[in-house]
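Closing statement on the L-homoserine sub-project.
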Amino acid sequence: MSTKLKIGLFGFGCVGSGLYEVLNQSNLLNASIEKIVVKDPTKKRNLPASNFSYDPNSILDDPSINLVVELIDDADAAYEIVTTAIRKGKNVVSANKKLIAEHLAELLVLKDEFGVSFLYEAAVCASIPVIRNLEEYYNNDSLAGIEGICNGTTNYILTRLNNELKSLPAGKQAFDLVLEDAQKAGFAESDPTLDIDGFDSKYKLQILILHTFGLKTIPEDVLNLGIRHIKTDDILFAQEKGLKLRLVSFARKINDKVVAFVAPLFVKSDSFAYDINNEFNGVSIEALFSDKQVFTGKGAGSFPTASAVLSDISALQYGYKYEYKKLVNASSLAQDFELKVFVSADNVAALGKIKLLEVEEQFTSHNYAYKVGRINVSQLTHGLYRNNPDLFIAFYSESEISINNDLLAN
Ligand code: HSE
């Protein structure tokens, strides 16, 4: 028997209005949106104003509402809504990756304490059903690694820079132009820094790590390098070698530690990431017995994201909860590991700030310089290089990763 779900919806932007539409079109669910709370009374919406309330308590204090669907942009406000709803015994569905990544541990305790379900399939790669697969299908095969293109905005930017290099304006202008197009198309976060500096990809990676390896992390634990400083010459470098640049969320178990990072990666034509273009996302899951499996689909946008929210609502009809079975055998994150890296800058002096081991290739001209070698990633984690406007840093997907043995012994 399914339970009738009476939904209190927070947010009626791109995803919230999409949900309203897909829920109306789906006659399979025993669920209805009872109340919608939004922040800005002056904003133009495609429903009459009488459908909206501006007071969060109109949902949170209503005992007849048994499901809160939180689809707002502001992670701090979302935290208040979600934690209050859970404390009031309501099930919650959220698409807010930042909120979840920043408060993972607390939210897991809270939902258990109040005996509710907290689902968030839409928070990672929108329409791709990756969380529930990790929870259910991959709960008895030992997982070796997970790699994803989890951010539609940066994938859109990298695809266009690669495909239209000759027709786009030179230098930084090209980047700004394609970012603006991504914003217009509604993929980008309201603060696009979250996309282009790799934070959005990192929040999603943290959620994937939780469901892949049972490991709870905080954002500060995981390195994120973005694409803000990419130059036309970096794309040319990749093209000359038959490679593409993709912003990848990466986690792999090596010697019982989990190596995890978000970084631009040079990928070869045989990589799953090579053919994932524009705002599409893709996730490759590697398991001991099933080997690699790749999921692809739309990772951003109104209906693709709403479809994942709809799926969570549907699962809740039958009381579905994530069980987090892998938490029992959680392993820990490797903090100190080495891999092959490419670093470029507009000038040699800037490039000199970064020390590579075993340099295998370098180039210098009056306005562009790069080198390729191995790096100990701990050099990057404190932000000294990450925030240096002159440097673009990318890893090689096929490179061998080694973990510092001294740390392994700890
Ligand atoms: N800004 C995000 C992206 C939206 O570009 O993927 C979907 O999470």
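Residues 97-113 form the longest helix (17 residues). With this model delivered, the sub-project is considered complete and its resources will be redirected to Aim 3.
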